[in-house]
Amino acid sequence: MKSILRNGLWTNNAALVQLLGLCPLLAVTTTAVAGLGLGLATLLVITASSTAVSLIRHRVPRDVRLPVFILVIATFVTVTELLVAAWLHEIYLTLGLFLPLIVTNCAILARAETFASRQPVGPAALDGFATGAGFALVLAVLGAGRELVGRGTLLDGAEMLFGPAAAGWTVTLVDGDVFLLAVLPPGAFIGLALLLAAKNRLDSRD
Amino acid sequence: MSLRPGLTLALFVAISLTLVTVVHQTTHPRIAEAERQAVMARLDQVLPSGYDNDPPGDAYSRPTPLDGASPLRVYPAYRDERYLGAAVEVETRRGYSGPIRLLVGIDAGGRVVAVRAVSHRETPGLGDAIETRRGDWIHGFAGRGIGDPPESGWRLTADGGEFDGITGATVTARAVVEAVHRVLLDFERHEEHPP
Q1: From the CA of B134, how many Å to the nearest CA of chain A?
Q2: Nearest-CA distance from B168 to chain A in Å?
Q3: A71-80 pLDDT, tens per residue?
Q4: Where are the domains of chain A?
Q5: Full-model pTM
Q6: ipTM of the complex
């Protein structure tokens, strides 16, 4: 059980090691809150779909397993999008474009195919959760880094995710844009590369 | 050859469709209400002050001057039956990704009171600078009208006009300037004799 958690969060991190799901990862991480928002939505979908795939694993013939898995994932994504639009409307206005992108996150399909479809429900759910948490962590860290370097703020717009009480969480270090490249698309690639390098360095020290 | 794979797939399609339909049905009223709230919350910020009617109750629609967009929604403001101006809800399709919906408040003299973004899908961190909580850019329209700046000035400075662009979101800024300008032209044509 510990190894499943460790695998998803660090050793086999979907974003940093398998380099899966880069499309939403690079597109959304312009601020810490946007990254965290999509990360949490992905976490929800991947946990739910891994559980569901594990539950149906004996009933799905091999020939059609991939279409069925994709169907399961797409269903959960659509449901999540509707729920966010209904209950977190302000964050939906920001993340609206990217929520459907979760479907294209191959990390989710990869976990369904390589793990959930071969394991009992408990480990499958845990694996989905760990993978999603690892992915969300990278999204949040990358978003925070790009926001800090690009705009000189941290947690801007936190009230969209955590309610009005969080309005005061925003840390403003510098007024006005700082190093705009960080927020632009190239900054996403550079930021991810720096994270990869940092992880490899940490790993090589052991 | 066995029919089982096909039947299994069909079964899962049916289950998925049912689930999505049920969630859609249950969330639909709430989503519509949240969208209406987003308009209402911004209405007071763009209407001329001191009205005593109920603008949402008196609202009406009319054809939009913008290509391929949904009709304008006009929220008129009155005080003692005197016409003060109106807020115009407009949609533009020229944004970077998906429609942008704006509320443009105009006083009886045809000048902009304020402009607010109602909904959009522009890039977080760049195009969302049109929201007041992300930047002051949208305040640049206040007090402007037809002839101020003149016709040729209703563009971004990058295009030879008088409105600043947004760094990294030129397309977004251009779409908003164009939409506000077209709404003003349309307003001038229709509102000389308000209903």
Answers
A1: 8
A2: 7
A3: 999 999 999 8
A4: 2-205
A5: 0.73
A6: 0.73
